[in-house]
Amino acid sequence: MNLARLDLNLVVALRALLEERNVTRAGQRVGLSQPAMSAALARLRRHFDDDLLARVGGHYELTALGQMLLDRTATAYDVLERLFASQADFDPAKENREFKLLASDYAVAVFGTELARAVHEEAPGIRLRFTHTPTTVVDDTATLLSATDGLLMPHGVISDFPATDLFDDRWVFLVARDHPSVGDRLTRKDLERLPWVTYQRTYDAPAVRQLGMLGVEPRVEVSVDSFQLLPLLVAGTRRVALVQSRLARLLAPIAAVRVVEPPYETVPLREALWWHPVHTHDAAHIWLRETAARVGTRLQSES
To answer: In this structure, what are the phi and psi dihedrals at residue 8, rounded to the nearest 5 degrees?
Structure first.
């Protein structure tokens, strides 16, 4: 396909048409008249050799190809927007823009809050938007990174993309503050007999996989898609949960839980900021990465 012969304005029209599923509303959304949007739809139908929007009764529905293009078009739009927003120079004190970062709630609580504080002090016009890391991050890393400004994730989950190391952490266990049968340190037998609260997406918790290699199969009683909810689901119960040490220290005072050491040497955790190579030389991204690295260094020195 010869990209030089394509009209990139059609990406804008395509996204509006697929999301609105109405020619008039799509035109209003992008500032085109109804005849102009109809003409754009006709060009898109010729290009894809597909109706994209099929009339069903008094409304339009997406064809199978249109449904497939829905997410791809949004991603392509984001990539183009970021591409043409690239800058040779960046003055954080004067700029007004938003950075989107994919992150777990753990990364936001421990690191994102500190990064947001630094940005607030140095760049009052800069906004940060943290979005929960989707489950497709392992299978479709390049697409996700191309449409965002960075990903906060520990080493050991993805590879082959540039990254800046931020800080180290380690895995510890949480039990109720008044747990009747757990002392200062858990035993392997404790891990086998006690009910567990676990984080649902195990790719974010390689230490859980380590348990399997040790022959320990957690008896999961509750699972949740939030690290920060683990202490609340442990408090007042016989349950046990595996969490990051920094998060445990942060949340233990507000939940009736205590930290106990594991009966084995846990897998270390090194949090990093990952990005797509397309952003490497962009001045705004360089500033963001340098700021993140500085905040990470400060966190590391305070631990």
So the answer is: -65, -15
Report the residue count for the chain.
303
Distances (CA, A) of 46 to 5, 13, 39, 50, 193: 14, 14, 11, 7, 64
Please name which of 258, 210, 259, 202 lies closest in space to residue 227, comparing C-alpha atoms: 202
Q: Phi and psi at residue 58, in whole multiples of 5°?
A: -100, 15
- pTM for the full model? 0.72
* Token pair belonging to 140: 């479709």
CA atoms within 13 Å, Cβ hemisphere of 66: 21
Return the amino acid letter for 152.
L
The residue to which tokens 């016009």 are assigned? 125
Q: What is the largest CA-CA distance in the chain?
A: 74
Decide if 216 contacts 191 (C-beta within 8 A). yes
Rounded Cα distance between 199 and 171, Å, is 13
Q: Is 91 helix (H, G, I), strand (E, B) or coil?
A: coil
What are the pLDDT digits (tens) for 158-214?
A: 888 999 999 999 999 999 999 988 888 888 889 889 999 988 765 445 566 677 777
Kindly report the number of other CB atoms within 10 A of residue 208's CB atom.
19
Angle subtended by helix axes 9-20 and 23-30, to nearest 10: 130
